[in-house]
Structures are given as structure tokens and as C-alpha cells.
Amino acid sequence: MSEKPIFSSPGPAWRASVLTLFTDAFPGVLGASIIGGAQKSGIWALETVDIRDFSVNRHRTVDSPPTGGGPGMVLKPDVAAKAIDSVVSNDRPLIYLTPRGKPLTQTRVRELAQGPGLIVFCGRFEGLDQRVIESRQMEEISIGDYVLAGGEVAAQVLIEACVRLLPGVLGDAQSASEESFEDGLLEYPLYTKPREFEDRAIPEVLLSGDHKKIAEWRRQKSIEITKARRPDMWQAYENGDGHERD
Ligand code: ADE
Hints:
alpha/beta; Alpha/beta knot; Trp Operon Repressor, Chain A; 2 domains; 3-stranded mixed sheet; 8 helices; 10 strands; disordered N terminus
């Protein structure tokens, strides 16, 4: 899906330009639900750029073997640079998605959501020639300690995480601030009707109507869950070092 006109002139929308060899992978999940709706209402905009269109030969080659030997293929720097330079930047950060990047955090997501948008380069093959990463000052980001076949899914993860924070995207303003990571703790358990489900009852305190007690219970649960699942986050929280907080 190519939506070029909106990108050639300044406008209010938060913009994501995605450089990929697989434009068919977009909008993907970004076209669905509230994120897709927010795009339709002009809160944000997406353009895809086919890296192969910037190949410098008639075979449309984009890769070649790693110099020095080794497995796989490397994305050629001249092709990548041309693709990158074709995008009107509007001071948007240029992000290269790669498992060797800095881990993505909610703090970085919040910063990116507050800016003008993103230019995202999706890697494939073994990787991208180091010289273009340096010359175009790409910020290398990983979405987790596992290896995907390419950056396309990672790009959708990154863009979705940002777009849901844009003003007007989430209906209930609270739902973006009380959840996991926003205060440095994981989210407490949630319940809804019926009161009993397969012999499991909703914890009594949640039915008490005592909002102070409910808040205390939820906080306690958040702490228990964070300690058990994410000792690293708990440590940071206890140290008050602002990990994942503003
Ligand atoms: N490309 C392949 N694996 C990735 C990961 N874990 N994060 C970001 N981009 C990737």
C-alpha cells in the first residue's frame, strides 16, 4: 500500500515510512481495528517503499555475498542508501530493525510517538552493509531476543506500539496509563462477569466497592507478578532508577 501524496507535503499526521522488500506484508495488522481506524481518520499515515525499486541493475539485484566469506547474503549499501534517500525525512528518526539492535522499551516507544513519526528499514538476508548503517546514522532496534525471518513483523510491532499512544487513538485515556510498563510494574489481573466461572470466583475485594482497597490489592498483585516474572524490572523499580518510567 503506497500513499505517497501525504508524504510529499507537511501535514499534521504522524508518519511511518517503511522500506521493505515485501511491501505486500503491509499494512498487515496495522490496517485492523483501532490502529487501522486511526489511519483512516488521518491521525497517522503509512507509506511503503520497495527497496528493490532502487536496485542499480536490470536483474533488480539487492544483495551479494558477505565480503570475507560466511553464510547468506548482505543487502547492498548503494541500493539501501538510494531507497533511504528517496524518503522525505521531515526530521523523522531512521530505524533499522535487527536482532542485534538495542532492545525496544516503552520509554523509547513513548519518545517516538511524541515525534513526527518514523522511517523504518526492514532487514532481510544476513543483514545490511555496515557502511550504510553508519553513513545514514541508523538507530538499530531489536524487538526481542529471538530471530525473525525479517524486519517486517518487527516494524508492525514498533509502529503499533507508537500509534496506540497518539492522541485520539485509544478511547479511554486511562487504558494507556494503568497498564504494564507504564509505571514500571506489570499489570494486575483483570476479571469481568460472571462472578463464578468454572468454580473460580472473582476475588472478593473487587466486588467490595471500596476503591482504596481495590487499588491496594491491584498494586500488591502487580508487585507479586513483577517480582516473579521480571526480577530485572522489580530491581529497577525498587532502585527507583526510572527504568521504564518518565
Ligand atoms: N529482524 C529479525 N529479528 C528481529 C528482531 N528480533 N527484532 C527486530 N528486527 C528483527
